Amino acid sequence: MTLASVLAGFHFIRPWWLLLLLPALLLWWAERRSADSTNRWQKVIDPALLKHLVTGGEARRRVRPGDVALLGWILGIVALAGPTWREVPSPFAAAARPAMILLKLSPTMLATDLAPTRLDRARQKLDDILKSRAGAPTGLIAYSGTAHLVLPPTVDGDVVLTMAKALSPEIMPREGDALADAVAQADAVLGEARLGGSILVLADAVAPDQVGALAKPAVPVTILGLTAPNIAADAGLADAAKTLGASLIPTSIDDTDVAAITRRLAAGAAPALGNGEGARWEEAGYWLVPLIALIVLLWFRRGWVLA
Predict the structure, then answer these.
(1) Distance of alpha carbon 285 from its chain centroid, rounded?
(2) Is residue 34 located within the same domain as residue 123?
(3) N or C: which end of the chain has fewer CB within 10 A?
């Protein structure tokens, strides 16, 4: 941490405590005036003569108990005000980001250009992704002509994979493409959890009417295009990726696509702050406690208070 970053982030957590500095200064000033015996004679003796009648002028200019008390008071007030320059990391900062998987279940997903089928290849890739994200919350949404929440984010990857294997185009109530509804539903699920995360779409194509209906979610989106390398990717996938600000990753024969997706999901949106919750800062006022303790020890010195 550089000096510039420390100075840029320095502030007080409870700055209203600094208002106590005003009565502290007023009391110190009043004590100094009451302890100065010459103030009582200045009204009746000429100042030119008074300075020759007063002894101990040099002694009055030394550090007095009131001065030390003022220093201790100032340090105590500053400590209570909560000086800080370092933000406390969020308890969720190191946690794995959740992800919502959007699995398309239209009849086109049964094409065999990706052996054995596009849907089976999607399940295989999902299996690899879940293994690479072991312990990270993952949810599942199935969509075709309609979108349906299958699982909210769960750390049990085996359950997610089991549910994905049980899904097929035959069980969907209507054929078609409801990607826009699926994205909106995934965004809502992640938004309610307030843990950030991202969305992963496993699809072979996107209908033109869906591109215009898409709304960019609050979390990043990644699309895995499920088409064979020797077949031109669906133009709707590229259009949808542009609309969503998503990364479009083609399916690869190795784990290159899985590695890219894993990196994207790991860098998902950060957790959102709750209502009334702000950034948390680490207090540094306790560093002043030893100095305050040393000042208090002076009051145990014989004759100090009467000095």
Answers:
(1) 24
(2) no
(3) N
